Amino acid sequence: MSIDLSVTLCGVHLPNPTILASGILGLTHEVMVRVAEAGAGAVTTKSISLAPRDGYPNPVVLDWGPGLINAVGLSNPGVEVMVEEIRAAKERLAPLGVRLIASIFADTIYDFGPTARYVSAAGPDLIEVNISCPNLDDDYLQMFAADPYVAGQVTRRVKGNTDRPVLVKLSPNVTDIVRVAEAVVEAGADGITAVNSLGPGLILDIETGRPILAHGTGGVSGPPLRPIAVRCVRDIYRAVDVPVVGMGGVTSGRDAAEMVLVGATAVGIGSAIAYQGMKVFGEVCRELESYMERHGFERLERFRGRGG
């Protein structure tokens, strides 16, 4: 039996459903190409802002055993630099058939518009709108993703400033993620990414009584997040008629199959790179193929949404 792992995400063809999650290795075109060569179907940049952002001091990431906790602070060199990295990456990814997703964020609803416009000029295949980072400064009273109306307003700003398909990245840290999903789809989102990290959480050095991360609290990711992410993807898939990129603790083909079973079109991989390296993309694809062979599925749509 011939297995076909290719998918269509918001009208964009991916050779396989695995996507490098935002915030993981997506800062330079050289590294994004290495991820593609390791087997990813698409790569996502680090989240890009209008102006450069330093982020938080080290330590910013901790492997606490079951998973990771991080407070990087959305560090990035700004849209002017990242536009050139996107252009360079696109040129080298094209022969591989691997797609590029530009992740953006902003401090205000208004700033999402010009950020989307500048990034779009570089020609990414899709734009992912990060409205769900859980470890921002205290100046941010709440995530944009925390309020359906605000999330919708951000989506409208982005859609009005780009001709690229738009994914909106949602948070598990909300009372009703389905309401937020419905709001961004009504505002024009072409797809949804679910979910960002959970939290913020806190881990102490018990000898000093101080937080280990320099920022103190951080977003929790990795395997502990996966059951929550799977439930969120299932609920969103049942509620809205747009593709969902499922992410949160995916480390194996088994995990990827679970995401597809609850409705994911594609599957983001991030924290697993810390444990398995870039080879995780190829391994997930091989394990997913094995699962499909055992069950007689030639294409992913044969079992998409059949679980839960």
Tell me what the structure shows.
- The protein is of the alpha/beta class and 308 residues long.
- The chain has a single domain (7-302), classed as Aldolase class I (TIM Barrel).
- The chain contains 9 helices and 16 strands.
- The strands form 4 sheets. The chain has an 8-stranded parallel β-barrel with strand order 3-4-7-8-9-10-15-16, surrounded by 8 helices. A 4-stranded antiparallel beta sheet has the order 5-6-14-11, with no helix packed on it.
- Helix 1 (29-37) links the parallel strand 3 and strand 4.
- Helix 3 packs parallel to helix 4, helix 4 (148-159) runs parallel beside helix 5 (177-186) and helix 7 (253-261) packs across helix 9.
- The two termini are 27 Å apart.
- The model is unreliable at 137-141 (pLDDT under 50).
Blueprint (SSEs and pairs):
Blueprint: E1 7-9, E2 12-14, E3 18-20, H1 29-37, E4 42-44, E5 61-63, E6 68-70, H2 79-93, E7 99-104, H3 109-120, E8 126-130, H4 148-159, E9 166-170, H5 177-186, E10 191-194, E11 198-202, E12 204-205, E13 210-211, E14 217-221, H6 226-239, E15 244-247, H7 253-261, E16 266-269, H8 272-276, H9 280-295
Parallel strand pairs: 3-4, 3-16, 4-7, 7-8, 8-9, 9-10, 10-15, 15-16
Antiparallel strand pairs: 1-2, 5-6, 6-14, 11-14, 12-13
Helix pairs in contact: 1-2, 3-4, 4-5, 5-6, 6-7, 7-9
